[in-house]
Structures are given as C-alpha cells and as structure tokens.
From TrEMBL, chain A:
Full protein name: Uncharacterized protein
Highest classification ranks of the organism: Eukaryota, Viridiplantae, Streptophyta, Embryophyta, Tracheophyta
UniProtKB/TrEMBL annotation, chain B:
Source species of the chain: Pistacia integerrima
Full protein name: Uncharacterized protein
C-alpha cells in the first residue's frame, strides 16, 4: 500500500544514463518530487513531474492510503510479560539450540474439495475411463462382440457367450476369470489376496506347485521343455515341465523344473538321472527347495 | 501459513493451554517439565522444574491477584502430585499430594477454587477433588473442600460449569456427569444412546461456557449444553479423537487425533490421519485439515483471539499456526 519515498530527482546525471538516452534526458529541468502527508487518515500524496513521449511536461499525482493491517492490541500486562526474565531451562538456552523454528514447509488448510465444486463431479473426474467413454466414443470398439462406442473389450457383457478366441494358448484358470469379472465390475485394481476366492490362492497355491518338484540344473542351452518331458516321462506321470528361458536372448538359462504327480516317481527320477550325461553335460537333479521368502 | 515448530519437550505432548490474554502458551508433556512459550513467535520463556512424572494437565489463573492475570499455574502429574507455580519465576509454591496420579486440573472462575482429578490406582478408585486456592501461598493448605467419587475408570477431564455451580466430568466410562459443586450431588448424566460409546479423551469449553465439546475414541466429537447436558451436535470423523478445541472467533471446531500411538509404526503416515480437522460448528461440514505432525495429535488449543491455534503431538513437537487472512473468509 505504501510507496517508499525516493530521493528527489538527482540533479547530477550519470554518464551511463546520458549515453543510453543519447543526451535527450532532461529530467533535471523538472521540479523535484513532492511528498505530502501521510495525514491522520493515512493518505499520502506524491507529486512527480515527467516528460511524456511528445516531450511535454506532465504532472503526476499519486494518492495512496497507508493502513496498519494488524493493529496489535496487546494488554499492558502482556507487554509487561514480554519483558519477563527467562527461567528454568530457558535460562541456559544457547542461541544454537534452535528450539523454535519456523516451518520451511507451507502448510495450508486443506479443503476436502475445492470450494464451489460438488462432490459428485470430482468422483466422475477421477475415473478416467468413464471420462473417455463420454469423449472419444469412436475409439471404443469391442473386439468380442464388435459393438462400437458401448464398452471396452474387457467389459464386454457378451464375453461369456462369444466363442473362445483361438489366440489364447493358455486357458486362464478359474480363479483368474473370477478375478477378471470382479475387477470389471469395480473398475479398480484389486490385489490378488483380496479377490474373490483368495482363500485358495497364496501359500496354498505355491505349495501345490512346489509339491514333488524336481530341479534340473546344468542343462545344455538347446534343451527345451519337450526334451525334458521326454527325459522324465519314463519315471511316472509328470504334471509340469518348465525350462527357464532368458527373456532377452530367448536362450535357455540352463535349468528347469519338473513336477511329478507321485513323490516316489520323483525320487526314482532323482536317483536315476542325477549325474546322468545328457547332451554332453552332466545333469544335476535334486529336490527343488521351496523359496525361503 | 508457515507454522512455528517448538521442540522443547523430549516426550509426547499431553496438554496445551493459552493464558487469557493469549500471549503465553503453556505446554505439558510426558517429560517432567511444563514449559511456557510466547504465543506470537514461539520463543521459550521458561520451564517449571520439580515434577517427577509425566505432566497431564495444567491451568492458568486469569483474575487471581487484583486483576493481575496469569500469576499462578497449576499442573497435575503422574508423580501423584498437583503443583502450584509462580508463572513469572517458575518457583514452586505448593504441592498437593495424592495417593494416585493427578490427571486433570481446572481453576474455577475467579480462581479461588481448583478441581483436580486423580486416577484409579492400586485399590483406590478415581476421584474428583476440589481445593481452595489461597491468595497467599504460605496460607495454602492441601485439604479438599469436596471429594467426589463414583465414576468407573479414569476421569480424563473435569471442568467447572457455569458460575462455578457445577463440575462437569468425563472419562473412560464414556459418560459425561454434571455434579453440584456445593453438595457433591450427581445432577445429570449423559444417556447411553446419545452419549459417546468409548473413552472420552478431551473436553473443551466454549469461550462463554454455555456449551462444551467432548472428543472420544469412538471417532466422534459431541457438542453439549453446559446447563442441561442436551446433545447439540455430533461431529463424525474417521479416526479416534484425542483432542478438541473450539474457535472463539468463528463457528469452527477442531478435532485432533489419529491412530493409537502403538499402531503408528505399522502404517504409512498418511494413513494415520494425523491432521487437525476443522469442522463447521453448526453445519457439521468438514472445512479442512492441517497436516504436519508425525504422530497422533494429543493436544489442541485455540488462542483466545481466534487468530492462531497450536497443536501438540505424540512426536514431541508443538506446532503454532497463525492463520492466513484467507482462513477468515472461508465459505462452505
């Protein structure tokens, strides 16, 4: 609100200014700046003279009102208390102790929602998919039923009626389909542990996979899953064969797992094939120890 | 706003109180030294040394010696004492000895009486003691004018009702009681339906004493009429309420709390909901939250001028907030 009082126009011209204005600066010809007030109402007048673009002398009067914003109204007692001597632990307080600090962080009174907006609006805005469905209807083509602008493929209501697509080799397990259905209704990510049918997932599932699992190491790089199956099938029914493949190179990483239906078969396979020469390498076959974590 | 952080306490804060002029802020914590700060810039003025246990509560006189305000401080501590102090020098004037921890203290209007509550301890039940406060500390005696017993469990707060005619108490049994301060008769009790369901942790009187606010672990705060004990409003929040206060200037109530301290380390600090929440007193609408503490808020106090408030947390910090000008123009 207040305008700081400057020195009246300097009569001396500095060489830098002269140079810049090419000698046309004639400010020293003007009457000096005048400051009147502030009076009892806090009104201050500043009168300045200036040359305008046409070279005419112009008088500029600026009127400002200075107001004290916070009129600190302290009681006499409070002012007296302000000068009390420190006591207790505060006496020995050294300057570096920094008991009182001003937060470097600007803390705001966080409104639960922007003033003036309705809570429903924010909800809609939060769902980007819902927003898209209003805006870009053309983009939305369901690959299952072929409808345009009604729903996304993942949310197709006719998904179950349509014939299973040929593209899928792995059939999703029952738990996966229920999870997908649950996810589709809510539209948000649900962690596996919280999905429907979660009670049979987790540790339960891992144990089933680890059962009668045999680890095969020192495999040659050419060995693929069918080869391993061929090698292990004579010992008994095999439920799963897996060869670790490097995702970047596509090469075998030299180890795999074989799961047997019966434990005895697995033991026999270990006894027989551990140390067996296969593809000019000596296989190492042992019980797969469950992961510790 | 940029809050002022005051780190004078080594342990969690328990109570905050401004003097009547609002220029001094008194803080109590589980460390043994109540502290007084200047309420404008947060500078420490002094500490009151002498307690040997957590200090749970304090109160300051307002018209004690011929209108010279803020001369006496009373503190209640877990060391089974309540102490009277000279505010200016930090000198101990008198010690009230009890057989169990003193939980809450409150000066009556006029500062001639004080109510002190004690916890249940060993075989003792909780009790409310009324003590006479002498002007001359050498004449001070430890005798109780009145002892009230009856409520089950701890009494977390006991304050004086209008005109010192009643004493309002609340605590672990979730029932608010109004007692006659002369005869000690139980006048009113909050009923089960409208009352709190769990421990009442805090109680704050309005500036004029006509109504008061209670906060409870049942995740709500309730506004009551001081005379009739009728329930006026209920503020529902999503965390246990440890501390409540009311703005003397605007129709705002502030609730502080958060998870129990023992469960804090198990979750993210955002999930703990450690903000001080502002609600509209009449419309019950949430106005906003002020974040900052790294633990539940245990104490809240509004400056009597309504332009600043302070919060004390389990993290040992007192945060003093001077409101931005925008705060006073908030529309719902």
């Amino acid at each position: 609100m207040s305008v700081s009082t400057q020195n009246p126009t300097q009569p001396k011209l500095r060489w830098g200014e002269l140079d810049e204005d090419d000698g046309e600066d004639l400010d020293f010809l003007l009457p000096p700046r005048q400051v009147i007030g502030p009076d009892e109402n806090g009104i201050k007048k500043v009168i300045e003279y200036k040359f305008n673009d046409e070279g005419n002398k112009v008088k500029i009067t600026t009127t400002t009102r200075t107001r004290k914003l916070a009129n600190a109204r302290l009681s006499k007692r409070a002012i007296e208390r302000r000068n009390w001597a420190k006591f207790g632990d505060a006496v020995r307080e050294d300057v570096g102790s920094r008991l009182t600090m001003v937060s470097t962080e600007e803390i705001l009174l966080e409104r639960p929602r922007a003033p003036g907006s309705k809570p429903e609006e924010t909800k809609v805005a939060g769902d980007s998919l819902a927003k898209l469905s209003k805006g870009g209807a053309v983009l939305m083509v369901c690959r299952t039923c072929g409808k345009t602008g009604d729903h996304w493929t993942a949310r197709c209501p006719y998904k179950d009626l349509a014939a299973p697509s040929e593209g899928f080799v792995d059939k999703p397990t029952a738990s996966e389909t229920t999870a997908a259905a649950a996810g589709a209704t809510k539209g948000t990510y649900v962690p596996p542990g919280m999905r429907a049918g979660a009670e049979r997932t987790g540790t339960d599932m891992r144990r089933r996979n680890d059962e009668n699992s045999v680890r095969v190491t020192n495999l040659s790089e050419d060995t693929r899953e069918p080869d391993l199956l061929e090698l292990f099938r004579p010992f008994g029914a095999v439920s799963r064969v897996y060869v670790a493949v490097d995702q970047k190179t596509g090469m075998s990483r030299g180890f795999g797992f074989v799961n047997f239906v019966n434990k005895e078969d697995a033991q026999r396979a270990i006894n027989k094939l551990n140390g067996y020469g296969y593809d000019n390498l000596i296989l190492r076959v042992e019980w797969a120890t469950p992961r510790t974590n | 706003m940029r809050p002022i952080l005051m780190k004078g306490h080594e342990r969690p804060l328990t109570y905050l109180k401004y003097n009547k002029d609002g220029d001094l802020l008194f803080s109590c914590a589980k460390d043994h030294n109540p502290t007084v700060w200047f309420a404008d810039n947060g500078e420490r003025l002094g500490t009151y040394r002498g307690h040997n246990g957590a200090v749970w509560c304090c109160d300051i006189t307002s018209k004690f010696l011929s209108l010279r305000d803020s001369m006496r401080l009373i503190t209640g501590s877990a060391d089974q004492t309540a102490k009277l102090w000279n505010v200016q020098t930090g000198a101990q004037l008198f010690t009230f000895n009890f057989d169990s921890p003193a939980r809450s203290v409150d000066f009556a209007v006029g500062d001639k009486l004080a109510v002190i509550t004690t916890d249940p301890f060993m075989e003792l039940t909780s009790a409310i003691h009324v003590k006479r406060i002498s002007r001359d500390p050498s004449e001070q005696t430890g005798e109780s004018v009145l002892i009230l017993k009856g409520p089950q469990g701890r009494i977390n707060r006991a304050v004086w009702g209008p005109l010192n005619k009643t004493i309002i108490s609340c605590g672990e049994d979730a029932i608010i009681r109004i007692w006659d301060s002369e005869t000690g008769k139980l006048l009113k009790e909050s009923d089960k339906e409208s009352g709190h369901k769990k421990t009442i942790t805090s109680l704050a009187k309005a500036a004029d004493g006509s109504h008061f606010l209670t906060g409870s672990l049942d995740k709500s705060a309730k506004l009551w009429d001081s005379r009739t004990l009728t329930l006026i409003k209920t503020y529902v929040t999503e965390r246990p309420v440890n501390a409540v206060t009311m703005s003397p200037l605007l129709d705002h109530v502030v609730l502080g709390g958060g998870q129990d301290a023992s469960a804090v380390t198990t979750t993210d600090h955002r999930a703990g909901k450690f903000e001080a929440k502002f609600y509209d007193k009449i419309l019950l609408e949430e106005i906003g939250g002020v974040k900052g503490h790294f633990g539940p808020i245990n104490a809240l106090a509004f400056n009597p001028d309504g332009k600043s408030f302070s919060s004390g947390g389990e993290d040992g910090y007192v945060r003093l907030h001077h409101f931005d000008p925008e705060y006073f123009n908030i529309k719902i």
